[in-house]
Amino acid sequence: MLITLTEPQWTHCALGADPVGDDPIGCWGQVVEPYSACLTHLAEHEVDAYVAGLRPGSDLKHTGTALTQRILDRLLDAVRNPATGRPEIGLARFDYVTFPEGVSFERANFETAVFNGAKFNGRARFAGVKFGNRTQFASAEFGSEADFTSVSFGRDAFFNGSHFRSHATFTAVTARGDVGFSGVQFEVAGHVGPVACSGKIDFSFSTFLAPIAFEIAAKEADFRRARWLSTATLRLRYADVDLTSAVFEYPLRVIKNPRPFAAALVPGPDEGDLGSLDSTVTLVSLQGVDAAHLVLADLDLSRCRFFGTVHLDQMRIEGETSFGYPPTESHWAGWKPQRFYRRQVIAEEQYWRSSQARAVSEWLPNPPNVEIHNPSALAPIYRALRKSLEDARNEPGAADFYYGEMEMRRADRTSRVADRVLVHIYWMLSGYGLRALRALVWLFLAVWATLASLMLWGLPDDDWEPKAVGAITSQSVTMPLEKPDVVNPSGALRDRISSERFEKSLRVVVNSVVFRSSGEDLTTTGTYTEMVSRITEPLLLGLAVLAVRGRVKR
Question: Which CB contacts under 8 angstroms, 24+ apart, belong to 402-407?
Answer without folding.
Answer: 402/432, 402/434, 403/341, 403/343, 403/431, 403/432, 403/434, 404/343, 404/344, 404/345, 404/346, 404/349, 404/378, 405/379, 406/432, 407/349, 407/375
